[in-house]
Amino acid sequence: MSNTWGSLFKLHSFGESHGVAMGGIVEGMPAGFKLDVSALQQELNRRKASINTYSTTRFEPDELIILSGIEHEICLGSPIGFLIWNKAQKPQDYKSTHDILRPSHADYTYLAKYGLHAQSGGGRSSARETLSRVVAGAMAKQVLCHYGITVQSWIQQIGPLACKDIWDWPATQFKSESMCPEIDVWNHMQNLIETTQKQGNTLGGTIRCIITGVPAGIGEPVFDKLHAKLGQGMLSIPTVKAVAFADAIACTSKFGSETNDAFYTDAHGKIKTHTNHSGGIQGGISNGMPICIETFFKPISSIRSEQHSVTHDGKATTFAIEGRHDVCVLPRALPIVEAMAAMTILDFWMLQQLKQFKA
Amino acid sequence: MSNTWGSLFKLHSFGESHGVAMGGIVEGMPAGFKLDVSALQQELNRRKASINTYSTTRFEPDELIILSGIEHEICLGSPIGFLIWNKAQKPQDYKSTHDILRPSHADYTYLAKYGLHAQSGGGRSSARETLSRVVAGAMAKQVLCHYGITVQSWIQQIGPLACKDIWDWPATQFKSESMCPEIDVWNHMQNLIETTQKQGNTLGGTIRCIITGVPAGIGEPVFDKLHAKLGQGMLSIPTVKAVAFADAIACTSKFGSETNDAFYTDAHGKIKTHTNHSGGIQGGISNGMPICIETFFKPISSIRSEQHSVTHDGKATTFAIEGRHDVCVLPRALPIVEAMAAMTILDFWMLQQLKQFKA
Amino acid sequence: MSNTWGSLFKLHSFGESHGVAMGGIVEGMPAGFKLDVSALQQELNRRKASINTYSTTRFEPDELIILSGIEHEICLGSPIGFLIWNKAQKPQDYKSTHDILRPSHADYTYLAKYGLHAQSGGGRSSARETLSRVVAGAMAKQVLCHYGITVQSWIQQIGPLACKDIWDWPATQFKSESMCPEIDVWNHMQNLIETTQKQGNTLGGTIRCIITGVPAGIGEPVFDKLHAKLGQGMLSIPTVKAVAFADAIACTSKFGSETNDAFYTDAHGKIKTHTNHSGGIQGGISNGMPICIETFFKPISSIRSEQHSVTHDGKATTFAIEGRHDVCVLPRALPIVEAMAAMTILDFWMLQQLKQFKA
Amino acid sequence: MSNTWGSLFKLHSFGESHGVAMGGIVEGMPAGFKLDVSALQQELNRRKASINTYSTTRFEPDELIILSGIEHEICLGSPIGFLIWNKAQKPQDYKSTHDILRPSHADYTYLAKYGLHAQSGGGRSSARETLSRVVAGAMAKQVLCHYGITVQSWIQQIGPLACKDIWDWPATQFKSESMCPEIDVWNHMQNLIETTQKQGNTLGGTIRCIITGVPAGIGEPVFDKLHAKLGQGMLSIPTVKAVAFADAIACTSKFGSETNDAFYTDAHGKIKTHTNHSGGIQGGISNGMPICIETFFKPISSIRSEQHSVTHDGKATTFAIEGRHDVCVLPRALPIVEAMAAMTILDFWMLQQLKQFKA
Predict the structure, then answer these.
(1) Quick check: pTM over 0.90?
(2) What ipTM does the predicted assembly reach?
(3) For residues D192 and D158, is the Cβ–Cβ distance under 8 A?
(4) Quick check: D256 contacting C, CB < 8 Å?
(5) Would you say the C-alpha torsion A66, A68, A72, A75 has a positive or negative sign?
(6) Under CATH, which number does the domain C4-352 receive?
(7) What is the least distance, in Å, from the CA of A258 to any CA of chain D?
(8) Residue B92 pLDDT
(9) Predicted confidence (pLDDT) per residue in B211-261, tens digit
(10) Chains in contact with A, where contact requires at least 3 CB pairs less than 8 Å apart
């Protein structure tokens, strides 16, 4: 496992942040599907560091190169190999901290796991690893789109600042240049990021993701419940350490009579629920209502102020992190969240095609 | 996938709540390991409905029958088949609601998924499915115990009642008859359950689980981060819809300078962290500190009061649930949470044995 | 892996020959499929030891017990747990050889692998393990039958006696009581088995299996070529150590101009080939022609005459095998060969349903 | 599956013969292992078309480019991405046959499978796909070498010409420039290839592979028997349609008393067998004796003489294949056979490290 996501629609991923290239192999794109390759690049661009203050100053062109599996934008049914060259590596930025276990980084755990310390920075623990996810997720989105399934995410909270606690924003509320549906909250968030950047500190927050158009019946009953696998996907994103579906956390202190979602039949004869405490999933399987996921990001650990730690051989030391790092990962994380959601939904959607006997 | 958990230590599970038997196959128990089979039964007994008011009145003996893979308590290295007969099925309890989509149950989603409605109650969506998990988890616990790894869980919250927000309770605080470290909170919880039961209502809450003794280096860097897979495991438990590691939710509104865990070397030369906001996991890999998981349970959906819903063919109806159901799933869920934790940790522990080259 | 066959249609298997029960879990039977459960028992009966001289005198009722996943013969879409009790175990038969490494048995390799020696005879290496395969294979056959795919096998050779080297026997040639299409050859084979039985010796041979009605396009291009996976399936049957498709062995000494299969279009507009040296598979993918497999069985190793060997601690010894053993495994192996073929074809058939984009 | 080989040591492969690049991802190389990268290139060179008459005139530099997972020749434990650019594509060579189903090629089966026909020649069905196998196999070989395991292959037969039917050639018999242990037979084979090339025809044959130093205990008892998985690996090589272990085919017409391998203890106290009809594998598990595999290659289907076939829409036609093709695939297939053997053995070797309980 480890570097593979999915069972029918699959991404195999490779690449270290300061190595030669990032990349992967996508399996499961149906043969004959016409893929808009430029849209893959657009998703990469959404993830890219911008000139805004909130992100790293490592600017990578992040140009996607397709190596196989696609001919004249038609998927051949064969595996789609792809890569993105690393062009702005500066391993020297890591020299001063090379022997130091940076707090809440993966330095110590990688050392323990692999018994060595690569010179190439964070290795697989760098968020640069998520490039491959965005590419594969953008492919999945295009297939889902054909089946009327859309994936939309926004920043719900950064530090102490949060949007209204609602899930059903009208689509008109989302504009390409804003990251959340309430533009004034987003402006405050940007100010907070700027201030925090000057202080050499970092911020966390939450991202909400809503998936609409998923037909009822997608998901598996036991270990691979739809929300369990979506949850794993979200928790696998760097700095994410909690995940919740709809208002599940608030529900823990309520009565069942307050949290059950009553069914009704709508004007078109479609079965729906009045409320959506279930977040679109019951018994691990989609019920046709929007799927609502909230993902919790801890502040990133690369703060600029002096910190206490130990060296590889356990000696106490103080140090300050150099190099180029984001202040707040959330603006760049939106396409990553959507990628994990899209890949997971498509994988289960495919599996469902085999579940009922067709004579 | 779906009915299988794990990649090296594996459980394959089968059985419907109102079918003939529940059971499974465990693969990966190392040959030559001496297994205390009676301890497996004890874990099943922890999960059993008790005479307390908070649980269903369906009393099943839940006697474990081992079919293969063990001889004189020694694991042979072959798959361990096991079953537990269903003895107290009462499918007739479901007759009155057979044609009704019970709110927040899996009735509708199963119908959509499989295109049929089994007579045997909730099928795989019943919590009775977790019997197999408890058996396999109890095996995993015994192996982990040999390596100094322990898994402990308690009820942190039921409805509005919660224990103190701390993780490092002294072991003496846990008594077999109590479900949480603060005995007076537990007494209040029991009263609340009793009252709620009389009102025909149900309760949710949270369970905390702490895993100690895990060496640094366990877990995988990208998609199968240790907390991502533990998270999937927890989210796969019936009625769980959110999961968090340590204080990850609170961390989202703090600065990085407040949430980084500074390393130090202890008197025995072991590298530790002063705080544990990381919940024992950094970059998806264990750092040797206790692993801290909080699992959020929604109130169970089987309330006794009258509810509005629709029939299978979409007609509006009102009904009240009969049958035998728990008021609050948390007391019986402790061994299930521990089972998912134990299986997952053992699986990753095994994988780690292969990660470093040994000349 | 190891105890699991298939990726979408799956069998997980358990059970030692002299343990409590054999059994397994089948996943992937499509929900709503009406399964003839009595036909599963009939396939088990085909595999059973008969009163003929050629088989063991261990007579097991081999009664199939379904534990889950089926209600009123309708598959629910959930995993189908099943078992077959072991009733005629006689571990005492193995006492005299318990400390001896029987030549060409798995005694030594199991000891090396697991570091222990179970008292229960051959453990998983006994051909009794194939019971689970026959059950799952019989399910697969019923699904395939709905799609017009049939699996037929016969004994092609026993010892030096062989049928004509042709693949396209008319269906009328197969009678339930005979094991091969040439009844006189079968009579000679039976005589040979009887003679060999009296001499305390054993026999090998080959089984041919032909699968018709497979549409073109089933299989995968690289590692999981259809014949590669069918080959693994056949080689996993006890005592099988070679496998060939159509006349592949003879083709190695011919020219390409002699072994190419020319295409033509038949009267119904269907593309076929004049010859079938490809055995129905080109580039790892079915071409619509019959799939032709020959499976090579070594003589079973349980001969009654005195043999030289060593004990577990390496001391030279002589001994003679007691217990109940077949003289020639082929008559009972027909349903096993068919089971592996049917499971494999169904698995790939399912996978193919997802390969082309459907707008 | 399909494009992945292995479960712990894994290769994921991508690339079409006439696309941009071939490549793959290797997972499971143990961290800290010092890899001789130049030796990987040497294995690729062994597979390369030479100036000899027997091979295609498409000359590719086949230069290996490592993209990740290795730093200063030390494996980091992360996935090793790699690629080989396709530089000498000539899709125009396929224009004249573009609309024709070439006999015994995969044209028809790919069309049926994917519903489309790529312009890029044979796509994944080209033997160029095996480049990735050779790279990964060469890595596996280096790890095996550290554990004293060696993989050696030779051409046993081409067309009607064959070496002596023995397995235990002295190592001195293998010279780098010859492909089989009997130099005079190899000379005759080369003459036969030359003559056949002039006639526009093609040749098949067999390759033998012997793996020595494998400790007893490697392999799995049921579906993933060591020879079953080795068999799948061999059958997945283009044009291979049969596989046999040791003299398994000849054994089918013998008595058990002739084919059992008697155990003895050698001067060093090691348990061995006098004969090796088992080919080093008993009950699916290695017994410490050399593992003996024979792989049967059909003549390749690209003959130059005129052939009859049909077009994509089923119309009869005659045509002659142009383009650059091998006359006999066996000389270039040796490193491919070894690669599949090495990857498979290493995968099972790793799995075995987890099988016995270590207190």
Answers:
(1) yes
(2) 0.96
(3) yes
(4) yes
(5) negative
(6) 3.60.150.10
(7) 45
(8) 64
(9) 999 999 999 999 999 999 999 999 999 999 999 999 999 999 999 999 999
(10) B, C, D
